[in-house]
Design a protein that fits this description.
The protein has 275 residues and is of the alpha/beta class. The chain has two domains: 9-88 and 165-274, P-loop containing nucleotide triphosphate hydrolases (Rossmann fold), CATH 3.40.50; 98-163, no CATH class. It has nine helices and ten strands. The chain has helices at residues 54-62, 104-108, 110-114, 119-132, 148-160, 178-195, 206-212, 241-244, 248-274, and strands at residues 9-19, 27-38, 43-47, 69-74, 77-78, 89-92, 166-170, 198-203, 215-219, 227-232. The chain has a six-stranded mixed sheet, sandwiched between helices. A hairpin with a 7-residue loop joins strand 1 (9-19) and strand 2. The longest helix has 27 residues, at 248-274. It is globular and about 50 Å long. The protein binds adenosine-5'-diphosphate and magnesium ion.
Length: 275
């Protein structure tokens, strides 16, 4: 039986060390003593400069990476690498996980097929999801016959069809042009509003983080990255991400969070120049 106690996701005192590239005897501490919770139904964004350890934290939450120390609990149940990945979660990464040899519909239903759902049933659910993400009639197209935005919609349907209790998203829209990106952000919010799953959304873009989230967590620059700020986003929903950015409440929040983030971004930039 799946446990249902506790927050959707509780990362406690997580530290991740990697062997240094040039000298395996030296360790690089990417993340140090990071604690982060996502409540049920909460949309949390984690922002931080490039290379600070955002993907590392997400991979820990996904059960894809065992932390050097610290614990992960999913609805109150300890996540152990020995038991495999976080099965309550669905993932969306920057590069979509579409299979180029499968049509749109066959990509959407791939997860259901792996779970042994009969094909006719899976196709029925898949068609419904294609409609929900605005891809009705495109099920027979292959990913290479779709635009970047369409592929993202497909990837979203592919993830959501499995009805995960937690959504883990790692800069899913950062490769899109600004207009398509805002459309996708609105689409994500509309789908999320239907059943309010718990979301951990990783981005380097503070505006995106505020527009989408209930809470924004700011990470320090690496090494030894950890949360340095936690901001509640009390903007009304439903939101239109392109309109909400213009409101005074949004701009106030942006100013406040940027003040916490700016120094870390500059630090990370100096480090990148030094490499
Ligand atoms: N498997 C790994 N081995 C060695 N170093 C890694 C590994 N994964 C990440 N790193 C290092 O950890 C730091 C954080 O990486 P990452 O989590 O990908 O950052 P972000 O997603 O914030 O851009 C970087 O310096 C990166 O080079
Ligand atoms: Mg990353």
């Amino acid at each position: 039986m799946a446990s249902n106690e506790g927050p959707a996701l509780a990362l406690a005192d997580i530290t991740c060390r990697f062997a240094a590239r040039d000298d395996a005897s030296k360790a690089y501490t990417a993340v140090a003593n990071a604690t982060l919770n996502v409540a049920r139904g909460e949309f949390v964004s984690v922002v931080g400069p490039t290379g600070c350890g955002k993907s590392t934290l997400l991979n820990v939450a996904a059960g894809l990476l065992e932390p050097s120390s610290g614990t992960v609990e999913v609805f109150g149940e300890r996540l152990l690498a020995a038991n495999g990945v976080n099965r309550r979660a669905g993932y969306m990464f920057q590069a979509d996980a579409l299979m180029p040899w499968r049509t749109g519909i066959d990509n959407v239903i791939a997860g259901l097929e792996f779970r042994g759902v009969p094909r006719a049933d899976a196709i029925g659910q898949g068609e419904a999801w294609l409609r929900r993400v605005g891809l009705a009639g495109f099920g027979d197209r292959y990913p290479h016959q779709m635009s970047g935005g369409m592929r993202k919609r497909l990837a979203l349907a592919q993830t959501l069809i499995l009805s995960p209790d937690i959504l883990l998203m790692d800069e899913p829209f950062s490769a899109l042009d600004v207009q398509t990106r805002q459309l996708m952000e609105n689409e994500l919010l509309a789908l999320w509003a239907e059943d309010r799953k718990s979301v951990l959304f990783i981005t380097h873009d503070l505006e995106e983080a505020i527009a989408l989230s209930d809470r924004v967590v700011v990470l320090s620059a690496g090494p030894a990255t950890r949360p340095i700020g936690d901001f509640k986003v009390d903007l009304p929903r439903p939101r239109d991400v392109s309109e909400i950015r213009m409101t005074p409440a949004f701009l106030d929040l942006h100013r406040e969070i940027w003040a916490a983030m700016k120094e870390e971004v500059l630090k990370a930039y100096e480090q990148q120049k030094a490499i």
